[in-house]
Each structure stands twice: as structure tokens, then as C-alpha cells.
Amino acid sequence: MILHPLSENQESLSVNCGIMKVVEAFFLNDGTEQYLEVELCPHGQHLVLLLSGRRNIWKKELALSFKVSRGETNWEGEAYLPWSYFPPNVTHFNSFAIHGSHDRRVYEALYPVPQHELQQGQKPDLIRGSAMFLGNLACDKITSSLYHRLEYFKPFSFNTLLGEEWKQPESDLWLTEKPDI
Question: What family classification does the UniProt entry report for this protein (predicted)?
């Protein structure tokens, strides 16, 4: 579940992805560099990607059950991810949020790239990526190479949440359809 503040101009949906607000979660197997990226927006848009190798999209625009409710100052979203989307043996995690507009744009990370790795005034190195659809309108989804700095993700274990005896279900998606590595 995501609970995140709304920011100015949030209520007016724009097809300019440069002002889209988004919360992103990444689930990584650091041994294979296979990972799941989930992007959620306050107006119900979402993007689910499977990647094999840094920034190498293997599957995109996977289906997702995602519900959003918006209040005056916050939005809340619930996403139900099939176990088949998770790569085998998830070992690391990171999460990001982008909100605000123009000079008040904010990039947040649960585990950010250390300041000494950034140049003064550097914002995320944005590149054009896959398409994110907003109703019938499509725009270029912007992804950040800083968000794909897998070496800064931190250890994560589902066992911490689900108990030591829990075992991650095998994924038919990852096992039967091997990504090109």
C-alpha cells in the first residue's frame, strides 16, 4: 500500500509526463540482476516492467490490479502484484517518489545514491523510456538511470514480512520465458 502527499496541480491530469507524480518500487535479485519495477500514479496509471540486467526491459506493460483514493492532501494506492512478476530469489529493494513541478520538483529515494557520487546540482539523469498510457493518450515515460543504480539497493527479504518458514513461490513467467541476458 502506498500513502503519498498530493502536490500542487495534482488534480489537473496532464499528458506531460514531466509533471507526473509517481511512486516506484524495485524488487531485485542481485545475483542475476533480474528485477521487477512497479510505478504507481495518483490518477490510477501504472507501469509494471520486468528487467534483466540494468535498465534492460524484458517485459513491459504487465497487468496490475491497482486502486487509488485521493484526499485533499494525500493519495493512497493499493496494488496487488502476482507472485509470478517477482524474479526468483528477491534479495534487494529500493523505492522512489517523484512529485512537485518545475523548480520545485522533488526526487526522493528510500536508499539514495550517496551525495559524494553526485555532481553539484545534479538531478536524476533522465532518459526516454517505454510508453506510459494515460487513458487513450500516450506519453514518453521518463526513467532515471540513478534509479537503476542497483549497487545502492539494500538487502530485502520477504521472510522478514512473511515469516522465516515462508518460501518464495516459483514464477512460471521467469522460469518458462527466460529473458535474453
Answer: Belongs to the UPF0462 family.
Beta-carbon neighbour count of residue 17 at 10 Å? 19
CA dihedral 88, 93, 99, 102 (to 10 degrees): -90
**CA 5, chain centre distance (Å):** 17
Residue 159: which pLDDT band, with cuts at 50, 70 and 90? Answer: very high
Cell representation of residue 170: 516459483
Q: What is the pLDDT of residues 80-131, one digit of tens each?
A: 999 999 999 999 999 988 887 777 777 788 888 777 776 665 555 433 333 3
Strands 34-40 and 46-52: antiparallel
Q: Which of 4-8, 60-64, 99-103, 177-181 has the lowest mean pLDDT?
A: 4-8
Contact of 26 with 81, CB cutoff 8 Å: no
- Go through the chain and tell me how many residues it has: 181
Q: Residues of 101-120 as b/e, b for ≥16 C-beta within 10 angstroms?
A: beeeeebebeeeeeeeeeee
> 7 by DSSP, 3-state: which?
coil
Per DSSP, the residues of 51-95 read EESTT-EEEES---EEEEEE-SSEEEEEEE--GGGSPSS--EEEE
